């Protein structure tokens, strides 16, 4: 998420108060609802732009949207405290290409009259938006309601994520690794459905960058790794310089090219030509909040970026190793975000080691924390469109230990073999993402915003 979308500790949010030139209903209630609603948004950390006065016609709507666009607001919320002019929905759609959030508020309780018709008005707008194919989220409730505030924040995050992904620049160094054809990216489909652009980068040039980094810069980064106090098995401190070079080179590439996410072809070239796997570097970057994937998995790193924009925390990109009726055992060779593992120094905490297969450093062995709610998810392209799935569970104590990163997840709902069979026939790639918390409903709604096929 770009820093210029923020203002101090507040987030700039476009807010239009929808009205009409001949106001009807209970205007005292209308004004009370407006004050409470704006105060609630402010308490939630939003700097509301455009809400200085109601919009009642094309001229006032365009003027308010001018202010919203000049402030580079991350999302647009439409508040309709009493039923507004429905024709303005078309004006808003012409000016604001991304999703909008419709907030309908309750009637005044107990006075025996219809006070606002707010929900009726937002229903009218929602119908127009839907028939025009314009994405939106809808919430209904009082500004003081904790449940409403939770839904409101989620709706704003979804709209904001759509905007960030549609403007994202995604890099891939090299391509997918040999044989992993299910990870192949399609740049024009990516642009058509998600809006993001794919930027291809040279693997040889990346390796050249690794070698040319100044020694003093590398030494400082090695010290930062040593300060993490990670246990070491079959590796020495003298080996760290090469991995610091990998880490610094990836950061440089992302900064220079303005990348929001990065996929790296990690094998067979890197361990064979520079003598190390880049997995410690990847683990550090993802722990810092960067969307970085291995094995050239472009859609995987885009999904990581979605998690970041939605503020769902880091993601573990993993293989689906085995399963039974209710549990799935996930594993990858040692590049999970260290902050997703058990604590440093604890049993199962991150430690540095050699790769189990091609015995070269550095992988980060570490157990994904046990007893945590998690969501298993995946975005992927298939045929002429994108698909998305997400389902929930809880991490359990693994019945056996493997090197690398592991997570045993007890899945909620449908039995695992039936779910796996359906996902296989939907073309899901062999990588999935694991994130803490239960977020399946959030991703169902994000799929709806983008027009992505949802695989339940």
Structural account:
- With 456 residues, the protein is an alpha/beta fold.
- It has two domains: 3-166, 3-Layer(aba) Sandwich (Rossmann fold); 169-454, L-fucose Isomerase, Chain A, domain 2, CATH 3.40.275.10.
- It has 14 helices and 20 strands.
- The protein has helices at residues 27-43, 58-70, 88-95, 118-131, 146-166, 187-194, 203-212, 215-226, 240-257, 269-273, 279-287, 298-309, 416-425, 440-450, and strands spanning 6-7, 10-17, 46-49, 76-79, 100-104, 136-140, 169-173, 197-201, 231-232, 261-264, 291-294, 316-323, 327-332, 351-354, 361-367, 373-382, 385-396, 405-411, 431-436, 453-454.
- Strands 1, 2, 3, 4, 5 and 6 form a six-stranded mixed beta sheet that branches. It has a six-stranded antiparallel barrel with strand order 12-13-18-17-16-19, surrounded by four helices. Strands 8-7-10-11 form a four-stranded parallel beta sheet, sandwiched between helices.
- Helix 7 (203-212) packs across helix 9 and helix 8 packs across helix 9.
- The protein is elongated and about 75 Å long.
- Mean pLDDT is 95; it is low at 1-8.
Would you state the CATH class of the largest domain? Alpha Beta
Instruction: Please identify which CATH superfamily of the largest domain we are dealing with.
Output: L-fucose Isomerase, Chain A, domain 2
Number of helices: 14
Distance between the termini: 28 Å
When the domains are counted, the total is 2
Shape: elongated
The number of distinct β-strands equals 20
């Amino acid at each position: 998420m770009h820093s210029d979308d923020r203002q101090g500790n507040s987030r700039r949010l476009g807010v239009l108060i929808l009205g009409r030139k001949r106001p009807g209903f209970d205007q005292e209630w209308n004004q009370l609802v407006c004050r409470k609603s704006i105060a609630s948004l402010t308490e939630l950390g939003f700097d509301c732009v455009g809400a200085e006065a109601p919009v009642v016609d094309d001229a006032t709507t365009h003027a308010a949207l001018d202010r919203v666009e000049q402030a580079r607001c991350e999302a647009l919320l439409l508040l309709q405290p009493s039923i507004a002019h429905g024709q303005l929905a078309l004006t808003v759609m012409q000016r604001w290409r991304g999703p909008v959030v419709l907030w309908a508020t309750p009637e005044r309780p107990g006075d025996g009259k219809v006070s606002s018709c707010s929900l009726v008005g937002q229903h009218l707008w929602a119908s127009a938006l839907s028939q025009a194919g314009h994405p939106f989220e809808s919430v209904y409730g009082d500004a003081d309601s904790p449940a409403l505030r939770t839904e409101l924040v989620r709706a704003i995050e979804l709209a904001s994520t759509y905007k960030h992904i549609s403007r994202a620049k995604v890099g891939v160094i090299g391509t997918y690794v040999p044989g992993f054809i299910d990870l192949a990216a399609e740049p024009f489909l990516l642009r058509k459905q998600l809006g993001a652009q794919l930027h291809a980068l040279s693997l040889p040039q990346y390796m050249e960058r690794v070698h040319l980094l100044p020694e003093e810069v590398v030494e400082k980064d090695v010290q930062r790794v040593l300060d993490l106090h990670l246990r070491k098995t079959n590796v020495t401190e003298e080996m760290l310089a090469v991995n610091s070079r990998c880490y610094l080179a990836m950061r440089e590439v992302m900064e220079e090219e303005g990348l929001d996410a990065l996929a790296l072809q990690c094998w067979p070239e890197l361990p064979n030509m520079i003598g190390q796997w880049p997995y410690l570097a990847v683990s550090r970057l993802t722990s810092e909040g960067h969307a970085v994937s291995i094995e050239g998995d472009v859609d995987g790193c885009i999904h990581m970026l979605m998690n970041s924009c939605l503020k769902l925390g880091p993601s573990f990109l993993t293989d689906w190793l085995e399963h039974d009726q209710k549990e799935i055992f996930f594993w990858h060779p040692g590049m999970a975000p260290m902050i997703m593992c058990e604590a440093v120094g604890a049993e199962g905490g991150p430690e540095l080691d050699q790769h189990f297969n091609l015995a070269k450093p550095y992988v980060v062995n570490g157990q994904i924390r046990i007893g945590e709610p998690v969501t298993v998810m995946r975005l992927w392209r298939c045929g002429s469109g994108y698909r998305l799935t997400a389902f929930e569970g809880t991490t359990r104590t693994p019945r056996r230990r493997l090197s690398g990163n592991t997570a045993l997840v007890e899945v909620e709902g449908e039995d695992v073999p039936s779910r796996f069979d359906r996902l296989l026939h939907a073309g899901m790639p062999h990588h999935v993402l694991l994130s803490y918390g239960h977020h399946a409903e959030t991703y169902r709604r994000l799929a709806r915003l983008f027009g992505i096929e949802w695989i339940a």
